[in-house]
Amino acid sequence: GDAREREMDGPKEKEKEKDSVVSPTNSHQTVSDDDEIDYSTKPEFYDSDLDDKDELWVANKRKGRHTDAVLSCPACFTTLCLECQRHEIYVTQYRAMFVVNCEIKDKKVFPRGNQKRKRNKRERMAGQAAEASSQSGEAVRQVCCSVCSTEVGVIDEDEVYHFYDVLPSES
What is the pTM of this model? Predict the structure, then answer.
């Protein structure tokens, strides 16, 4: 009988211990950091006109030209292109003449025709981008994000950029 009574008392004692939790600072009142912040002065890094300034900058760069999308790097979200044209057949691909934050890498050749080995999705898309604009055997070079080095497309011999691994957004 005594063992059962002890088992019954055990959970009740644990509940009492939970109710009497001691304050971490041994004080009855905790002061929040928000109480110490002076909201009457604006932070130095705050600019209420920043969105308007950004919109003017983009409008100035485009000079009234239309774009199908604003392209960003899929890895770091850096802006790569403000003016591009979507591919007619491959709707996830874009071509452009003027880019920002892009780095041209080694030469690559994407031969046209049937290849017997299976290619992964990125290789297929790169091949489609190259084939969409190039003639048989035309050399294209890899284009990467200059911030994180993620491959985002290719550039052909006519200096037209073909993006196939980018995040498009409304302009």
Answer: 0.55
